[in-house]
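Notes continue from the previous slide.

Worked example: a multi-chain complex. Inputs as given:
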Amino acid sequence: MKILIVDDFSTMRRIVKNLLRDLGFTNTQEADDGQTALPMLQAGDFDFLVTDWNMPGMQGIDLLKNVRSDPNLKDLPVLMVTAEAKREQIVEAAQAGVNGYIVKPFTAGTLKEKIDKIFERIEGS
Amino acid sequence: MDTQDKLMADVTLDQARHLIKCLESGKVEEAREAIDGLSQIREASLFCEVGKLTRQLHEALSNFQLDNKLTGLAAQDIPDAQERLNYVIETTENAANKTMDSVEKCLPISENIKSTADELLNDWGKLYRRELKPGEFRKLAGRVETFLTSVSSDSSQLNGLLTEVMVAQDYQDLTGQVIRRVITLVQDVEENLVHLIKMFGSTEEYQKAQKQDVKHEGAEGPVIDKTREDVLTSQDDVDDLLSSLGF
C-alpha cells in the first residue's frame, strides 16, 4: 500500500506519516501542495491519497477534482484531513468525490476509523 | 453662559433700553443709530461663533496629530509584529519537530522492551509448566538478567527523552508573550482607525458595518468564532452531514 501525504506544514505531514506507520502503512511519500502532488500521483503507483485543503499553489479540493477527472487516477481513494469545516465546503468535497473527511485537530483513533471505513467500502463494492 | 456671552447680553439689553427710550421720546435719528448698533452686535456674535468653531476644528486637528500614532504603527510596529508572528511560526514548528524527534527515538525503545518482555514471559510460562529442558533454565536466567540490565538503561534513556519533550513545551510561554504583544498592537491600530473614521468618515456607516454579517468564502483555516452557524464544530457533526449526503 503506497500512500501520498499532502500538507503544506511539514509537522502535520510528519504526524500523519507516524500515525500511518503505527497502523501498519510504512510506504508513504510526501508533497507540500497539490501542484507538487499531482505529477507524483500521475507518475507513481499510489494506492491512497491523504490531503489537506488549505495550501498555497493548488488547494486540496482542486487536487481532488483533478484526480477525479484523470482517467488513470479517478478511482484513487482520497481522505481529506483539514481544518476547513464549513458546511458548504464539506458538501463541495463530497460532491467532488472525497472518500473520507477528517477535521483538524484529530485523533489517531479517528484516522484509523476513517481509513478502515474507506477500505471496507472499497472491498465491499 | 460664559462671561463673553453674558457681557454681550448686557450690552444688548442696554442698547435695547436705549432704543426704547429713543423711540418713546421721538428721537428718530438716534433710534436708527441704536438699531444699527444692535445689528452690529448680532454680526459680532456670529463672528464669535465662527471663531469658536474654527478654534475647535484647529484643536481637533492638532489633538489628532498628537494622538496620532499611525505613522509609528505603520513604520515600526506593524513590520515588527510580522517578525514576531513569523517567530511564533518558527518556534512552534521547532518545538513540534523537537517533540517528534524525541518521540520517534522513544518508540523503538519501548517497542523493543515490549517484544523482549513478551518473549521472556512466554518462556517463563514454560518454566512454570515444567516444559524447559535441563540446560535451558540457565539460558533463560541469563536472558532475564540481560533484559533487566537493558530495561534499567532503556528507562534512563526514555526519561531523558521524555524530559526533552517536556522542555520543548517552553514555546507556549515564549509565543504566548509574543502573541499578547501583537494583540495589544491590533487593539492600538483599531483605536486609531476608529478615531480616524470619527474625524474624517461616517460613524453611522462604521456602526452599520459592525453589525453586518460578513460573507466567508473559500478556505480560511481553523474558525475560532464559535457563534458562526455555517461551520461544523466536531468530527461527529461532519460525519452526520456526510451520512445525510449518503456517505
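Summary box: The first strand of chain A starts at residue 2 and ends at 6. Helices of chain A lie at 10-22, 34-43, 60-69, 87-96, 108-124.
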